[in-house]
Protein backbone atom coordinates (compact mmCIF):
# COMPACT_ATOMS: atom_id res chain seq x y z
CA UNK A 1 0.00 0.00 0.00
CA UNK A 2 1.35 3.40 -0.98
CA UNK A 3 1.61 6.34 1.41
CA UNK A 4 -1.67 8.16 1.73
CA UNK A 5 -3.75 5.16 0.62
CA UNK A 6 -6.36 3.64 2.90
CA UNK A 7 -7.11 -0.05 3.19
CA UNK A 8 -10.51 -1.09 1.88
CA UNK A 9 -12.21 -4.23 3.13
CA UNK A 10 -13.96 -6.13 0.33
CA UNK A 11 -16.86 -8.32 1.48
CA UNK A 12 -16.30 -12.06 1.06
CA UNK A 13 -19.52 -12.39 -0.97
CA UNK A 14 -18.22 -9.85 -3.48
CA UNK A 15 -14.96 -11.74 -3.88
CA UNK A 16 -16.78 -15.03 -4.39
CA UNK A 17 -19.07 -13.39 -6.92
CA UNK A 18 -16.09 -12.07 -8.87
CA UNK A 19 -14.55 -15.54 -8.87
CA UNK A 20 -17.72 -17.02 -10.34
CA UNK A 21 -17.74 -14.43 -13.10
CA UNK A 22 -14.08 -15.08 -13.91
CA UNK A 23 -14.04 -18.85 -13.65
CA UNK A 24 -17.65 -19.80 -14.24
CA UNK A 25 -19.47 -22.75 -12.77
CA UNK A 26 -20.18 -26.29 -13.92
CA UNK A 27 -22.58 -28.97 -12.76
CA UNK A 28 -24.01 -32.27 -13.92
CA UNK A 29 -27.75 -32.59 -14.49
CA UNK A 30 -29.99 -35.41 -15.63
CA UNK A 31 -30.72 -35.37 -19.38
CA UNK A 32 -34.39 -36.06 -18.66
CA UNK A 33 -34.60 -33.66 -15.73
CA UNK A 34 -36.56 -30.46 -15.36
CA UNK A 35 -33.47 -28.24 -15.07
CA UNK A 36 -32.20 -29.25 -18.51
CA UNK A 37 -35.67 -29.13 -20.10
CA UNK A 38 -36.24 -25.66 -18.70
CA UNK A 39 -33.31 -24.27 -20.70
CA UNK A 40 -35.25 -24.84 -23.93
CA UNK A 41 -38.16 -22.80 -22.62
CA UNK A 42 -36.26 -19.96 -20.99
CA UNK A 43 -33.43 -19.10 -23.39
CA UNK A 44 -33.78 -15.56 -24.72
CA UNK A 45 -32.35 -15.52 -28.26
CA UNK A 46 -30.56 -18.59 -29.63
CA UNK A 47 -30.25 -22.30 -28.97
CA UNK A 48 -27.61 -24.10 -31.06
CA UNK A 49 -26.86 -27.84 -31.24
CA UNK A 50 -23.74 -29.46 -32.67
CA UNK A 51 -24.60 -33.08 -33.45
CA UNK A 52 -21.60 -35.29 -34.26
CA UNK A 53 -22.31 -38.98 -33.60
CA UNK A 54 -23.04 -41.39 -36.45
CA UNK A 55 -25.89 -42.91 -34.44
CA UNK A 56 -27.77 -42.18 -31.23
CA UNK A 57 -29.26 -44.85 -28.97
CA UNK A 58 -31.95 -42.85 -27.23
CA UNK A 59 -34.63 -45.07 -25.70
CA UNK A 60 -37.56 -42.96 -26.85
CA UNK A 61 -36.39 -43.33 -30.47
CA UNK A 62 -35.88 -47.10 -30.51
CA UNK A 63 -39.38 -48.07 -31.61
CA UNK A 64 -39.80 -45.20 -34.14
CA UNK A 65 -36.44 -46.12 -35.71
CA UNK A 66 -37.36 -49.82 -35.88
CA UNK A 67 -40.69 -49.07 -37.54
CA UNK A 68 -39.13 -46.64 -40.01
CA UNK A 69 -36.51 -49.18 -41.05
CA UNK A 70 -39.31 -51.74 -41.46
CA UNK A 71 -40.82 -49.53 -44.14
CA UNK A 72 -43.32 -47.40 -42.20
CA UNK A 73 -43.59 -43.65 -42.40
CA UNK A 74 -41.55 -41.74 -39.85
CA UNK A 75 -43.42 -41.56 -36.53
CA UNK A 76 -43.54 -38.01 -35.17
CA UNK A 77 -45.45 -38.83 -32.01
CA UNK A 78 -42.40 -38.82 -29.75
CA UNK A 79 -41.16 -35.62 -31.40
CA UNK A 80 -44.40 -33.64 -30.98
CA UNK A 81 -43.36 -31.85 -27.74
CA UNK A 82 -40.12 -30.67 -29.38
CA UNK A 83 -41.95 -29.49 -32.50
CA UNK A 84 -44.32 -27.47 -30.34
CA UNK A 85 -41.40 -26.04 -28.38
CA UNK A 86 -39.64 -24.93 -31.59
CA UNK A 87 -42.84 -23.43 -33.00
CA UNK A 88 -43.48 -21.41 -29.85
CA UNK A 89 -39.88 -20.22 -29.60
CA UNK A 90 -39.55 -19.15 -33.22
CA UNK A 91 -42.96 -17.45 -33.08
CA UNK A 92 -41.50 -15.39 -30.23
CA UNK A 93 -38.52 -14.39 -32.38
CA UNK A 94 -36.03 -16.92 -30.98
CA UNK A 95 -33.80 -19.19 -33.09
CA UNK A 96 -33.19 -22.92 -32.94
CA UNK A 97 -30.12 -23.91 -34.98
CA UNK A 98 -28.49 -27.28 -35.56
CA UNK A 99 -25.43 -28.48 -37.48
CA UNK A 100 -25.39 -32.20 -38.19
CA UNK A 101 -21.93 -33.67 -38.86
CA UNK A 102 -22.10 -36.70 -41.17
CA UNK A 103 -19.50 -39.38 -41.88
CA UNK A 104 -21.40 -41.01 -44.73
CA UNK A 105 -23.97 -40.27 -47.40
CA UNK A 106 -27.45 -40.48 -45.84
CA UNK A 107 -28.38 -43.60 -47.83
CA UNK A 108 -25.38 -45.43 -46.37
CA UNK A 109 -26.45 -44.96 -42.73
CA UNK A 110 -29.84 -46.24 -41.51
CA UNK A 111 -29.99 -43.90 -38.54
CA UNK A 112 -29.08 -40.90 -40.68
CA UNK A 113 -31.82 -41.87 -43.13
CA UNK A 114 -34.23 -41.84 -40.23
CA UNK A 115 -33.03 -38.42 -39.06
CA UNK A 116 -33.22 -36.99 -42.56
CA UNK A 117 -36.82 -38.25 -42.79
CA UNK A 118 -37.95 -36.16 -39.81
CA UNK A 119 -35.72 -33.11 -40.28
CA UNK A 120 -38.19 -31.51 -42.74
CA UNK A 121 -40.78 -31.50 -39.95
CA UNK A 122 -38.50 -29.74 -37.46
CA UNK A 123 -37.53 -27.28 -40.20
CA UNK A 124 -41.22 -26.62 -40.86
CA UNK A 125 -41.59 -25.91 -37.15
CA UNK A 126 -38.84 -23.28 -37.43
CA UNK A 127 -35.53 -25.02 -36.72
CA UNK A 128 -32.57 -24.17 -38.94
CA UNK A 129 -30.62 -27.33 -39.87
CA UNK A 130 -27.34 -27.46 -41.75
CA UNK A 131 -25.20 -30.45 -42.74
CA UNK A 132 -21.40 -30.67 -42.49
CA UNK A 133 -19.25 -33.57 -43.77
CA UNK A 134 -16.96 -34.96 -41.09
CA UNK A 135 -13.83 -34.25 -43.13
CA UNK A 136 -14.70 -30.55 -43.06
CA UNK A 137 -15.54 -30.69 -39.37
CA UNK A 138 -12.14 -32.24 -38.65
CA UNK A 139 -10.39 -29.65 -40.82
CA UNK A 140 -12.13 -26.95 -38.80
CA UNK A 141 -11.03 -28.71 -35.59
CA UNK A 142 -14.58 -28.97 -34.33
CA UNK A 143 -15.04 -31.12 -31.23
CA UNK A 144 -16.02 -34.79 -31.45
CA UNK A 145 -18.74 -34.38 -28.82
CA UNK A 146 -22.22 -32.91 -28.89
CA UNK A 147 -23.22 -29.72 -27.15
CA UNK A 148 -26.02 -27.21 -26.89
CA UNK A 149 -25.18 -23.51 -26.64
CA UNK A 150 -27.81 -21.17 -25.20
CA UNK A 151 -27.65 -17.42 -25.80
CA UNK A 152 -23.87 -17.58 -26.35
CA UNK A 153 -23.40 -17.81 -22.59
CA UNK A 154 -24.35 -21.28 -21.33
CA UNK A 155 -23.09 -24.61 -22.67
CA UNK A 156 -24.68 -28.02 -22.18
CA UNK A 157 -22.04 -30.68 -22.87
CA UNK A 158 -23.79 -33.92 -23.81
CA UNK A 159 -22.17 -37.02 -22.30
CA UNK A 160 -22.80 -39.77 -24.86
CA UNK A 161 -20.89 -43.04 -24.90
CA UNK A 162 -19.57 -44.56 -28.15
CA UNK A 163 -22.82 -46.40 -28.75
CA UNK A 164 -24.82 -43.20 -28.52
CA UNK A 165 -26.34 -43.63 -25.05
CA UNK A 166 -26.76 -40.36 -23.17
CA UNK A 167 -25.50 -40.61 -19.60
CA UNK A 168 -25.63 -37.02 -18.45
CA UNK A 169 -25.38 -33.33 -19.26
CA UNK A 170 -22.75 -30.95 -17.95
CA UNK A 171 -23.92 -27.34 -17.75
CA UNK A 172 -21.18 -24.74 -17.69
CA UNK A 173 -20.78 -20.99 -18.08
CA UNK A 174 -16.98 -21.17 -17.78
CA UNK A 175 -15.82 -18.30 -20.05
CA UNK A 176 -13.18 -20.20 -22.02
CA UNK A 177 -15.52 -23.09 -22.77
CA UNK A 178 -18.32 -20.71 -23.78
CA UNK A 179 -15.92 -18.82 -26.06
CA UNK A 180 -14.75 -22.05 -27.70
CA UNK A 181 -18.30 -23.21 -28.28
CA UNK A 182 -19.23 -19.84 -29.77
CA UNK A 183 -16.30 -20.15 -32.17
CA UNK A 184 -17.23 -23.74 -33.06
CA UNK A 185 -20.84 -22.73 -33.63
CA UNK A 186 -19.91 -19.85 -35.92
CA UNK A 187 -17.43 -21.97 -37.90
CA UNK A 188 -19.88 -24.84 -38.25
CA UNK A 189 -22.75 -22.62 -39.38
CA UNK A 190 -20.53 -20.82 -41.87
CA UNK A 191 -19.18 -23.95 -43.55
CA UNK A 192 -22.19 -26.25 -43.34
CA UNK A 193 -24.81 -26.56 -46.07
CA UNK A 194 -28.50 -25.89 -45.54
CA UNK A 195 -30.37 -29.20 -45.24
CA UNK A 196 -32.60 -28.64 -48.26
CA UNK A 197 -29.64 -27.80 -50.48
CA UNK A 198 -27.61 -30.74 -49.15
CA UNK A 199 -30.42 -33.19 -49.95
CA UNK A 200 -30.89 -31.67 -53.42
CA UNK A 201 -27.17 -32.00 -54.16
CA UNK A 202 -26.87 -35.56 -52.84
CA UNK A 203 -29.99 -37.00 -54.41
CA UNK A 204 -33.28 -38.25 -53.04
CA UNK A 205 -33.11 -40.53 -50.03
CA UNK A 206 -33.97 -44.14 -50.78
CA UNK A 207 -37.01 -45.47 -48.88
CA UNK A 208 -36.63 -47.47 -45.71
CA UNK A 209 -35.87 -51.09 -46.43
Provide keyphrases for this structure.
disordered N terminus, 209 residues, 8-stranded mixed sheet, single chain, 21% strand, Endonuclease, Chain A
Written overview of the protein:
Helix content is 42%, strand content 21%. The protein has 8 helices and 8 strands. It is of the alpha+beta class and 209 residues long. It has helices at 12-23, 34-42, 62-69, 80-91, 110-125, 134-139, 175-191, 195-202; strands at residues 26-29, 46-51, 95-102, 128-133, 147-150, 154-160, 166-172, 193-194. The protein has a single domain, classed as Endonuclease, Chain A (2-Layer Sandwich). β6 (154-160) and β7 (166-172) form a beta hairpin. The longest helix has 17 residues, at 175-191. It starts with 11 loop residues before the first helix and ends in a 7-residue tail after the last helix. It has an 8-stranded mixed sheet with strand order 1-7-6-5-2-3-4-8, with helices on both faces.
User: End-to-end distance, in Å?
Assistant: 78 Å
Q: Any idea how many domains?
A: 1
The CATH architecture would be 2-Layer Sandwich
CATH superfamily: Endonuclease Chain A
What can be said about this structure in brief?
The protein has 209 residues and is of the alpha+beta class. The protein has helices spanning 12-23, 34-42, 62-69, 80-91, 110-125, 134-139, 175-191, 195-202; strands at 26-29, 46-51, 95-102, 128-133, 147-150, 154-160, 166-172, 193-194. Strands 1-7-6-5-2-3-4-8 form an eight-stranded mixed β-sheet, sandwiched between helices.
Amino acid sequence: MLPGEDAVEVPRATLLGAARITHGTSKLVAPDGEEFDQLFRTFERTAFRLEVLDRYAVEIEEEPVRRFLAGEQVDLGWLAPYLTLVQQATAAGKRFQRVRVVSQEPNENDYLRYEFAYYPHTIAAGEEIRILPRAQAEALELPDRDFWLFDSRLVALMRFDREGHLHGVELTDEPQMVARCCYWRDAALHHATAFERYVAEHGKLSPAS
